[in-house]
Design brief:
four-stranded antiparallel β-sheet; mainly beta; single chain
Length: 204
């Protein structure tokens, strides 16, 4: 049986972990083990091990030693890269970033539909003010959040970073696509629309 998590794929046979790989930035073998996975759901993968759900809490579990390394103060994980995890706290009311430096909570309330930049220095997240959405960028070291100019809309934004160029692409109202590169004055509208049938999109 295969279990997919965010940024991870594990092969589990009869409850035992056969192998696990981290899918970003490349396929890397995390572990080969016959140990029984002590949880009900694989949430993500980090350099230290696998993020598993045990009971109602998320833990980092090392399949090489079979030991639980630590308990995470997160209710869910939305992104993972190396030893960095992006998720939300209890009831997903606050965006939080967990790394080897500790836990940083975003300085404003943001939605959990996040996208982590290629360098893992910024997290893009939808921000609601009144009845209008915009896009905020959160510094993964400090939790400071800034609004991307030109992204206010009445539609919930979908987000995707281009791995090759570092541009952030935003799908907004009517399938319109905006593009923003950190440091630019504002997001620019591209001359294209995504079809309504497209549930999600990615950027290369």
């Amino acid at each position: 049986m295969s279990i997919f998590g965010k940024g991870a794929l594990a092969m589990v046979v009869a409850g035992a972990l056969v192998s696990a790989v981290q899918l970003w930035p490349a396929i890397e073998l995390t572990a080969e083990s016959s140990r029984r996975v002590p949880g009900t759901w694989l949430e993500a993968a980090t350099r230290d091990g696998l993020v598993i759900l045990r009971g109602r809490a998320l833990h980092v579990w090392d399949p090489r030693t079979g030991r639980t390394i630590r308990r995470l103060g997160l209710a869910a994980v939305t992104e993972s890269r190396g030893d960095l995890l992006v998720g939300c706290t209890a009831r997903c009311r606050q965006l939080a970033i967990v790394s080897g430096r500790g836990t940083v909570v975003a300085k404003r309330r943001l939605d959990a539909g996040t996208a982590l930049s290629p360098a893992a220095t910024l997290v893009a997240a939808p921000a609601l003010r009144g009845r209008r959405w915009s896009v905020a960028l959160v510094d993964t070291r400090t939790g400071a959040a800034t609004t991307v100019p030109g992204t206010r809309s009445g539609t919930y934004p979908q987000l995707a970073w281009a791995r090759s160029s570092g541009w952030l692409f935003i799908r907004g109202r009517g399938g319109r696509v905006l593009a923003y590169r950190p440091g630019q004055p504002r997001a620019v509208r591209l001359p294209l629309r995504l079809p309504r049938e497209a549930a999600d999109f990615t950027a290369g």
